[in-house]
């Protein structure tokens, strides 16, 4: 299972002990930054059987080292790695229209998408420095697009090449490089200010 919102102090033994009541824990892997070695705040718990993994979902939002953890079945990476023809054929991605940048615009996104899940998905291709999912300032509902920033342009390129058109939560992602104007609009949308309008425009253009 995927475990997000981990404290920086959480280690493998602490996480394993927290999930021990759910079933036999085979392994715990906490993801760290390749360059700095710092923990990224999420990881994976592998169980001996599927039933134990399902039991682990009850630990969602339980407290571990002072933080309410997020628990989900680890399916994002599996979906991202499905490069089958059928998967790609379900959605034909368009080529990027903007110049390469260290931030990606993520369109056609499921309304079930969340920050931890996107960090897990895109984190396989580089160091994700931030994830922003703009929401409607009145309803709080996600707008169906977001922004993922990396430490470098090369990492963003790698993620775009690997994930553009890939099925995520039932929808084929539409990726492009984010222009400074789009990026500013996305941040404003997340805060619910006037920038939300600009972020919405970016979503219409890119989605």
UniProtKB/TrEMBL annotation:
UniProt-listed PROSITE patterns: RRM
An example molecular function term from Gene Ontology annotations: RNA binding
A Pfam family per the record: RRM_1
Domain RRM: 1-76, 102-180
Cross-referenced SMART domains: RRM (SM00360)
Key words, A-Z: RNA-binding
Comp. bias intervals (Gly residues): 185-207
Stretches the record annotates as Disordered: 177-207
Signal peptide: none
Name listed for the protein in its UniProt record: RRM domain-containing protein
Species per Swiss-Prot/TrEMBL record: Rhizoclosmatium globosum
């Amino acid at each position: 299972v995927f475990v997000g919102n981990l404290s920086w102090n959480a280690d493998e033994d602490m996480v394993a002990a927290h999930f021990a009541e759910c079933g036999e824990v085979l392994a715990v892997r906490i993801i760290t930054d390749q360059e700095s070695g710092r923990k990224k705040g999420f990881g994976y718990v592998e169980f001996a059987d599927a039933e134990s993994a399902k039991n682990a979902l009850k630990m969602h939002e339980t407290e571990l080292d002072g933080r309410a953890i997020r628990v989900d079945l680890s399916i994002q990476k599996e979906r991202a790695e499905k490069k089958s023809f059928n998967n790609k054929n379900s959605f034909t991605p368009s080529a990027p229209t903007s110049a390469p940048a260290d931030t990606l615009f993520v369109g056609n996104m499921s309304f079930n998408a969340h920050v931890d899940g996107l960090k897990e998905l895109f984190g396989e291709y580089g160091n994700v420095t931030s994830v922003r999912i703009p929401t409607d300032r009145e309803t709080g509902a996600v707008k169906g697009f977001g922004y993922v920033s990396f430490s470098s342009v090369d990492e963003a390129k790698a993620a775009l090449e690997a994930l553009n058109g890939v099925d995520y939560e039932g929808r084929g992602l539409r990726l492009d490089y984010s222009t400074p104007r789009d990026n500013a609009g996305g941040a404003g949308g997340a805060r619910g200010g006037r920038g939300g309008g600009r972020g919405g425009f970016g979503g219409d253009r890119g989605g």
